[in-house]
Amino acid sequence: MKLLISALLLLFNVAVFAQSNQFSGNYTRTLGEEGKHLIEYKLTLNPDGTFVFYSYSNVKGGVPQEANKYGKGKWIAKDNLISFLTNKQEDFDDKYTLDFNNSTARFITKNPRDKSDKVVKTKLQFLESKIFWMERIDLFKI
């Protein structure tokens, strides 16, 4: 009986780890052009369930014209939805100031059963976030 339970737990852990590897990786999005307005977003989902986010903006005539913003925390996946969590004591300091609590993104990829030539870029589409400029942003997997 103990052997059966151990085997089931091992299979469950392998399945959970394999599922998180589907989502983990680097995601990016660049809006604008060099020399004009430029906004870049970079998100890294680590296989251990942590994430790091970086945003760079250079807006001509903006106040401030150039800005760097950072965020970090943990992520969990359920079906194709990824939820982001930040712990105020661990994930915030002078550099990491973005609060990703209650942020949710949908993982979008081509369905493996779709045998057509249609190209679907793998991406995360943010559905909701306390960070107003993150809602409806698509970040593409690289």
From TrEMBL:
<keyword id="KW-0732">Signal</keyword>
<protein>
    <recommendedName>
        <fullName>NlpE N-terminal domain-containing protein</fullName>
    </recommendedName>
</protein>
<feature type="signal peptide">
    <location>
        <begin position="1"/>
        <end position="18"/>
    </location>
</feature>
